[in-house]
Amino acid sequence: MKKIVFAAFCLWSMATSYQTVAQTVKKITSANKVIPVPAQVEKITKKGNEIVIPYEKYVLPNGLTVIVHEDHSDPVVHVDVTYHVGSAREEIGKSGFAHFFEHMMFQGSDNVGDDQHFKIVSEAGGTLNGSTNRDRTNYYETVPSNQLEKALWLEADRMGFLLDAVDQRKFENQRSTVKNERGQNYDNRPYGLVSEYASKNLYPYGHPYSWLTIGYLEDLNRSSLSDLKNFFLRWYGPNNATLTIGGDVNTAEVIKLVSKYFGSIPSGPKVAAEKFAPVQLEKNRYISFVDNYARIPQLRIVYPTVRAYHPDEAALDCLAEIIGQGRNSILYQNLVKNQQAQSAGSFNSTSELAGEFTISVTPYPGKSLADMEKLVNESLQEFEKRGVSEDDLTKFKSVFEAQAINRLASVSGKVSQLAAYETFTGNPNKITDELARYRSLTRAEVLNAYDKYIKNKNRLTVSVLTQGKEELRAAEDNYSIDESKYMAIDKGYNGLKYVKARDKFDRKKMPGNGPNPVVKVPAFYTKTMDNGIKVIGTENTEIPVITLLVYVKGGKLLEGKDVSQAGLSSMFANMMEEDTKNYSAETFSKKLESLGSSINVGSTTDGVIIQVQTLKKNLDSTLALLEEKMLNPLFTQEAFARNKKQTIEQITNSKRQASTVASNVYDRINYGKNHILGLPSTGTVETVNNINLNDIQHYYDNYFGSNDARVVIVGDVKQLNILPKLSFMNKLKANKFTLPSVPPAPGIEKTKIYVVDIPRAAQTEFRVGNVTGLTYDATGDYYKANLANYNLGSAFTSRLNLNLREDKGWTYGARSGFSGDKYTGAFTFSSGIRADATDSALMEVIREVKEYAEDGITPAEISFMQNSIGQAEARQYETGFQKAGFISRLLQYDLPPTYVQQQSTILKNITKKDIDAIAKKYLDVKKMNIVLVGDKDKIMPGLKTMGYEIVELDTDGNVKM
Q1: End position of a domain, from candidates 472, 505, 534
Q2: Exposed, middle or buried: residue 164 (CB in 10 Å: 0-12, 13-18, 19+)?
Q3: Which domain holds residue 328?
Q4: Are residues 205 and 339 in the same domain?
Q5: pLDDT one-digit tens code per residue, 727-771
Q6: Which of 48, 76, 364, 392 lies at 20 to 30 Å from 300 by C-alpha?
Q7: How many domains, in total, are found in the chain?
């Protein structure tokens, strides 16, 4: 099911208590200053078993809106500062500023040193980030509850004391980082630019939605430091921001701290709401472009629709689901199931100023986009005939409700909802209106939305074409952008002045820590079923949701008996999503979605995993469907042929995706072409072609059983209630078999460079490392190796990331790590690096790893690592999925419940000698495989000067002759 506008909206049955408080200003006296404390504007409380986000709202004299949500279920706090500015506030020729400035906000301020924001939050055991979209930019951190004041101090400092710390060096560095981000996420991947072409041709020239948030490279190149400073002065005032704090806090204490750190920051220029006329297309527009990375074309059809919170928004959301989401959708039935297209779907997206209803189709090779457009048109006509059923509405509302409730699993999810509602509606308690709007949706409203926005309406059609196949476009281009009617809008940049807050306390003094929070690992229960299936569970009553993970032994390792059928377990998992003996896949999906539940099947190295999620009220009905899926699958030739064809196309298409190619080739080099771990989990075109329907049935009959199976349960259900409901699993066969042993990886005689050519690639994908043989061990060398790597390549402030991203500006991000399971382990450095810096970056990677192995860790790094990892435990058990991960590891690796305490002891007592020994043992740069996937013509000259043997490979990892 599609998005929920502006991060997440929560819809469910609730009642609230609203209290208006007189607008008086109180005062409290601190040791340093009389601080004005704002009056409470409103208070929402929870009664009984209501599902509601309680909060108190305040407004400071400088215009800063403050929302506080108390949630004492876990010892964590989430702080979010949302500024009501996104790319929609930008101008022609200055695109990308909002996103660019998001990066600059992490570069230090008057009282926070360069790159210290990440370091301080990380060392405090927290995590942090920021994001920008069309209409807002937000900055957020989740920290242990004793670190709240530190987080507020950091956010206040960059709100009020940023500009003097911004210099040309930082500006250029982050400009390079943003360019790398654009290269990684847009320019260097198949179909990465389709949204950019759609936006600039759908909206009028100059409309702020006519460019993407990332902006254009040419605009980034022409921007100046003064432009960026003016952007901050215009939009980053407290009067254009909402500060939302949620978690294990006391509201009165929070307001005191907010008043202290934010209260003296001067208000910024007034910010008025933007208004633009709805988009009207004068004709059906056709445009096309050639995608360097795409192997097959793609069709994108876009209808202009309505802004967020418009009365027709819910109807358009439902319409998109009926037409193009899920197995029962019209597009799936007419295009995907009939094997005309690999994928086909529709979605409705809404933003503050406008919205789009989009249909996207990726056909099979050889199909023209004109044929795909014809099928889309026929599908729309079919909708007109079939209309909207009550089942359609029930399914839509159930899935919507379930997804909304699931977003309440974390305090960050609750805070994000409050912040978004306040920013865009002025009412954090908007969920009541949203509930009524979606729950009251009628068939007539959906049909009316179709008539108003889709039926016979002009639209934009984008043809994404491949090299030499331009004849496959949907129609000849008939539209060019008209710049003649553009009139620049005064954005209010004249006469801006930077005025700093004046305080009587020392802002340079970083706040200390509060009392350490008490962290409790989840209580759990265990049970062994009659047929030997092991069960582990934990009760979690925060939201009325239950999650089950069912593990059945098998998976990729089974294919080690005969690698000629690599990908069999993945194909089996796909087929388990198809028909059962009593339901077609479509009927099964409809029943599941009408409950707001999900059952997903996937394969892993040593098993098949079934993930189940359901609302508490629908547990019994969902488990009945799970029983049907596990005990009564029906493997048909029609479904098998379709899945096989889709899998082969996905494998073939992935050879144009540099990151996928790099990972697959890296595994091939590390393990060898005849080693099961050297092959992709989906297999290759050749191995998938060797799989037939009988192999799927044989897998189920011989391997899908109770042998070493396990079940993980997390959610709002008691042990005594859930265990009897799982008794159907006793009907699973007791298939007895042993997984093939994993052969050792071939040794590495010397370091070599393996180059895979992707012409015109903007970046080079790096994979550098080797097979360590370190299997998962919660308290042994594997755990210690991850501690050793933390400062090398795991933390944001690690040596590798600071060097390659923050200092050099060559990448959007760089990291290294030790991975391991029961069977093997590896050390890997990975990154997407700017193409023209490939050789220089490789020299830096080798140098950093070598120096770390030879010279070891510093005392300061040990202290940082111990503080960061040690205090992060407060964040490890908050959500249902986190709890599931913890108790699942107990069962999977037969760990004692006290292993977390054992890890804590190791962490506290580990020494430089211990870490240095690990690094020296496992980080040998003379015996590593270097895989580089990029434009050979650009990168090869520099690589040849480095003294390594260079081997050219194709995208499958075969040596090119």
Answers
A1: 472
A2: exposed
A3: 285-472
A4: no
A5: 999 999 998 999 999 999 999 999 999 999 999 888 999 999 999
A6: 392
A7: 4
